[in-house]
Write a structure and sequence with these properties.
2 domains; alpha/beta; globular; Histone, subunit A; Rossmann fold
Length: 304
């Protein structure tokens, strides 16, 4: 039998973990996490990482394997994840991958884009601009130099904005012009499925999930990492807002409302990213897992 990677995508809070466990059980396979926030062991609540019980139901890779103090790039993940998939395939022709981080999913399935070396002084200058003028100035620069990238990246993530700008400035070409047009060949076939729901239902699920995170101890978890708040691993929804509360800039009620709002915006960006892949077969979030398994078996039989 050929080797397969079943990739499960969709917005935050849609139920990807649940269906991944169902599929892992059915195919007796292991799970690769492609959620860049769940890598870090110190922040399980705010990243909605699989629980200890869920982790026991199937063998997981790339969950809580790093510290927030570790530097871990998407390039490193691409190499390590593909090596792990190859290792898993020695025992089982089917491996499950689940995650909401589109760039990390694409890195495994399609490979990363190749960019030229850039003079490090450009990044240093951009970091100085960030410190002096704030992220808004860099956002405006990116909008002028590369409108396409401006529309498609997380503009609140200074690392992403600076990376795009340094390519623009160092090559006199838009960052988007370097994006891969051709997939990297892998030694496995990918079957991609997505979970979806009406936008209002997704948003309601997110709101309820944030409330549950607060009940589960998100406030205490954020306090425990507050002193490390400048780390890139913590520049993420759920922590930034609570850090502002700890600094006295937000009330707790407003911080929670901001977490919900920013989580909803994140879900919208996830959908935009994942819906670009025309090979993904979409299912309603509450589809009977048997129907999804039947679809996957039909695909496996078709290509084997």
């Amino acid at each position: 039998m050929d080797k397969y990677l079943i990739s499960i995508v969709g917005p935050t809070g849609i139920g990807k973990t649940n269906i991944s466990l169902k599929l892992a059980s059915y195919f007796n396979s292991e799970i690769i996490s492609a959620d860049s926030r769940q890598f870090y062991k110190e922040i399980p609540i705010g990243t909605a990482a699989p629980t200890s019980l869920e982790l026991k139901l199937a063998k997981h890779h790339f969950v809580h394997h790093k510290s927030i103090n570790d530097h871990y790039s998407v390039g490193e993940f691409e190499k390590e994840a593909n090596a792990q998939i190859n290792q898993c395939h020695l025992l089982n022709p089917i491996v499950i991958m689940v995650g909401g981080s589109g760039l990390y999913v694409d890195a495994v399935v399609k490979g990363l884009d190749e960019f030229p070396e850039i003079n490090p002084e450009i990044r240093s200058q951009l970091n100085n601009e960030l410190t002096t003028y704030g992220i808004e100035k860099l956002q405006e620069e990116l909008k002028k130099l590369d409108p396409l990238t401006y529309e498609n990246i997380s503009l609140k993530n200074p690392h992403r904005v600076i990376r795009a700008l340094e390519i623009c400035k160092g090559t006199n070409r838009p960052y988007s012009s370097f994006l891969k047009k051709k997939k990297t060949k892998r030694n496995f076939n990918t079957i991609s499925i997505g979970l979806k729901a009406e936008r209002s239902l997704i948003y309601n699920r997110i709101n309820c999930r944030v409330d549950q995170m607060i009940k589960n101890g998100l406030l205490e978890e954020a306090k425990s990492v507050f002193e490390h708040r400048t780390l890139n691993a913590l520049n993420t929804v759920g922590y930034k807002e609570l850090f502002n509360y700890f600094k006295g800039e937000y009330t707790l009620e407003f911080a929670i409302s901001e977490i919900k709002k920013n989580s909803r915006r994140f879900a919208k960006r996830q959908l935009t990213w994942f819906q670009k892949d025309k090979n993904t077969q979409w299912f309603e979030y509450n589809t009977d897992p048997k129907s999804i398994i039947n679809y996957l078996n039909s695909q496996l039989n078709k290509t084997s």
